[in-house]
Amino acid sequence: MPVNLEIKVPVEDFSKLIKIVKKRGGKKIYSSRQVDVYYKLKDGRLKVRNSSGEKSVIFYKRVEDGSERWSNFKVIQVENPREWINFFDNFLERLVVVDKHRTLYHLFNTRIHFDKIKGLGNFVELETKVVNNKIKAKIEFLVIMQLLDLNPENQILNSYSDMILMKKASE
User: Fold this and answer.
1) SS3 of residue 138 by DSSP
2) Strand 110-117 vs strand 56-62: parallel, antiparallel, or unpaired?
3) Domain residues for 146?
């Protein structure tokens, strides 16, 4: 399975960060609403993503309690996410739905997500894909974090799905 190094940081405004990404050669891939339907698994996470930019089934595993978030993942592009949702609903427990607007940029081997999450706010996520080795990926990751002035102390270790579940539990 492919491997990413990830971070999620809350932000107030995207405009300054997007200007920096563009200035450094980042390419906008898409901007669209995404609805992710998460399913309860014993190990790992499974979601079906439906958007105009990406229709996919995504499985990933990562250590949720470390300061460095390495994840193993598998993405399958699908034509009709609704069919997959109906399929999984037959034998898996639906956990939560995450509704967001995502603008995605690529810079080198890093996907930069500018996410506005319904009910949670604005976040920047970096996902640096390991291409040759983890050391090179980590260097690229740290350079982009510094470029965007993202403080690792502000990182959110929970997934959006966990954040929504925690918010619902506290209401």
Assistant:
1) helix
2) unpaired
3) 3-170
CATH number of the domain within which 33 lies: 2.40.320.10
Tell me the two tokens of residue 89: 């609903």
- In order, the DSSP letters of 55-97 are -EEEEEEE-SSSSSEEEEEEEEE-S-HHHHHHHHHTTS-EEEE
pTM: 0.88
- What is the tally of structural domains in the chain? 1
- Counting every residue, how long is the chain? 171
Q: List, in order, residues 6 or more apart from 114 with CB less than 8 Å away.
A: 14, 17, 18, 102, 103, 104, 105, 122, 124
Please compute the mean of the pLDDT values over residues 52-71 and round it to a whole number.
78
Amino acid at 49: R
Structure confidence by residue, pLDDT tens digits, 112-138: 999 999 999 999 999 999 998 999 999
